[in-house]
Amino acid sequence: MHEWQVWLVASLLLFVAEMLAPGFWLLSVAVGCLVAGVVSLVVPGAVVPAPQFRGWTLLSLVGIRPFLLRHLHPRGTEIRTNVDALAGRVGIVSERIDPATGKGRVLVEGEDWRAASLMDAAPRARYPGDGGPGGGATLYEDKET
């Protein structure tokens, strides 16, 4: 097998692996392999293709990857998970929030979460037995804790 064939097979394998891995890192290395394979086809040996591989890999990391990330994953479309997805949701208080400690438990969409009372949020929360419909509490996210 010739050296240019090794570069091109490596490039092909990296392109396929990029389909399975997120982040476009392997795509940049695949571009470097592709260019090194073409250069190796014209100039045999490892002296010229190796620097071309390094250079084109770095160029594609700086140029192609940010372009693809910006256009395929635009800002504002992130999927919120875990506690980030709870901000503003309404839940049912399963364990009353203790006024002394400010801690309690809230059931949100079938999952039990630790709850904390914020001073400005306390008047807006409804607890079971206080006359609020359904006995729910509004969840507020505190990024500082």
Summarize this entry quickly.
The chain has helices at 3-20, 25-42, 49-72, and strands spanning 90-95, 103-108, 111-116, 136-138.
> What's the β-strand tally?
4
Order of helices and strands: HHHEEEE
Mean pLDDT: 77
Count of DSSP-assigned helices: 3
Largest sheet: 4 strands, antiparallel
| Percentage of residues in DSSP E strands | 5-15%
Gyration radius, to the nearest Å? 27 Å
Which bin fits the share of residues in helices?
A: 40-55%
**Strands of the largest sheet, in order across it?**
3-2-1-4
Number of spatially distinct domains: 2
Q: By helix and strand content, what is the structural category?
A: alpha+beta
- How far apart lie the N and C ends? 59 Å
Which overall shape is indicated by the principal axes computed on the Cα atoms?
rod-shaped
Q: Could you list the spans in which at least 5 consecutive residues all have pLDDT below 50?
A: 120-136, 140-145
Description of the structure:
The chain has 145 residues and is of the alpha+beta class. The protein folds into 2 domains: 3-72, no CATH class; 82-138, no CATH class. Helices cover 41% and strands 14% of the residues. A 4-stranded antiparallel beta sheet has the order 3-2-1-4, with no helix packed on it. β1 and β2 form a beta hairpin. α2 packs antiparallel against α3.
